[in-house]
Amino acid sequence: MKRKDYLIVALVPLALLLIPLIGQLTVDGWNWTFSDFVVAWVVLALTTLVFRFLVTRKPGNLAYRAGVGLAVAAGFLITWVTMAVQIIGDENPANALYAAVILTGLLGVVLARFEPAGMARAAFATAAVNFLVPVVAVIFWPADFSPGVEKVFGLNGVFVAMFVTAGLLLRLAAGSARPAGSA
């Protein structure tokens, strides 16, 4: 990566963190600590790094870029929501399982060696693991679903749909990347 890439990875999150900084100064009840800003910067910087490396720097068609971008966005949103407010209740241990969702996606991408067909399989596997998180939570920790079971499954369904759509786009990209005459 070039020096410019590192600057983008470092500065884009700082620019985005101006939003909560302004909120901190102007909105009553908005109480971020210094460590909250550091953690938010790390999450945003890692997301920017992955996006920069996989979407903007790697050559690919529109389906590839859209698929990877959607998967990165879904991973970021799951991480952000889980860290900020928890998806499944305030104290439900199942929230920790969302780390397995992110790790499934990251491991799948590495094992696929960033090739669209393998990344499509990784996106589908990530969707499957994501789907299972609230199912496991209902079975093992049903007491703490503070936003409600329907709302948890609804939000989770949005993330599953994002990963499935990313997988379909990556499968499309893999199909268009095949040499002519191959099956």
From TrEMBL:
TM ranges: 33-55, 67-89, 95-114, 121-141, 153-174
Statement: the UniProt record of this protein carries the keyword Membrane: yes
Domain of life: Bacteria
Keywords recorded for this protein, A-Z: Membrane, Transmembrane, Transmembrane helix
Name listed for the protein in its UniProt record: Uncharacterized protein
